Amino acid sequence: MDATLSEIEFLALSPNRVAVLELLAADWHTRSELAAETGASQATLGRILGDFEDRKWVRRTEGGYVATATGRLVAEGFRDLLDILETERDLRDIVDYLPTDAMDFDLRHLADATITTPSQTRPNAPLQRLLSLMRDADDVTAFSHAFNDQSLSVAADRAGSQQFRAILSQSAVDALTGDETLRARLRSLVETETASIGVYDGEIPLAVTIVDDVVNLLVRDERGVLQAAVDTDHPTVHSWAEARFEDYREQSAPLTAADLRP
User: What are 131-153's pLDDT values in tens digits?
Assistant: First the structure.
């Protein structure tokens, strides 16, 4: 273990070592090319390449250098570690609120996600992020334990020109139907041929909206206060969200206009 940690430290302490190994893992390079790519001096490159040769991570060939099979293995593994830590840094401030038990996909798929958090000047930024996506979408698919009046308004305004499908928990529907104005708006939406809503009689621990090719997760704290919106177009997350929606849809009852009459 100590020897392995020493090798990790050897790479981690020098961005130039990481860059050189990744370049040589991708293709053959001369020292001049490595210098141009990394900005390292020839003296620095000489030390790095010598250390790599001692470890048999690279070999000389045709006036240049290329990574060996084990060198490529190390480069790939170290890149994976860097990607994991970069993703962790992005999620660190909201990880306490993420419903990870229900997010059965690798969190590394959120590496390129857009994370929108509240600020003093924009306390509703996470919700506004979702609403802006919904306004421009051709297709919206959602499953959630909550559906606020602003999301309902956008869906109702786009009714007829946007395909809208949603599975809502019974508690979310009850919250909407308890208000006369929202009940009427919800009834208008379900009367549209391009919209369908199902009611799931159970817990939905997530608030997920698929907006065209983007998956949006609204993240709340234990009090129900929005803490972030997380958006990603990663195909694995998209497939996960579609599959979860279908699971809930199969166990849901359709909401009809008749259900929403006063």
Answer: 999 999 999 999 999 999 999 99
Give the start-end residues of each E strand in the chain.
58-61, 64-67, 114-116, 139-144, 163-169, 195-200, 207-211, 214-220, 226-232, 252-254
Residue 186 to residues 49, 136, 200, Cα–Cα distance (Å): 67, 20, 16
Residues of the chain with CATH 1.10.10.10: 2-87
CATH 1.10.10.10 fits 2-87, yes or no: yes
Other CB atoms within 10 A of residue 207 CB: 23
Nearest residue to 112 (alpha-carbon basis) of 91, 133, 136: 91
Q: CATH number of the domain at 93-260, please? A: 3.30.870.10
Predicted confidence (pLDDT) per residue in 150-195, tens digit: 999 999 999 889 999 999 999 999 999 999 999 999 999 999 999 9
Q: Whole-prediction pTM value?
A: 0.82
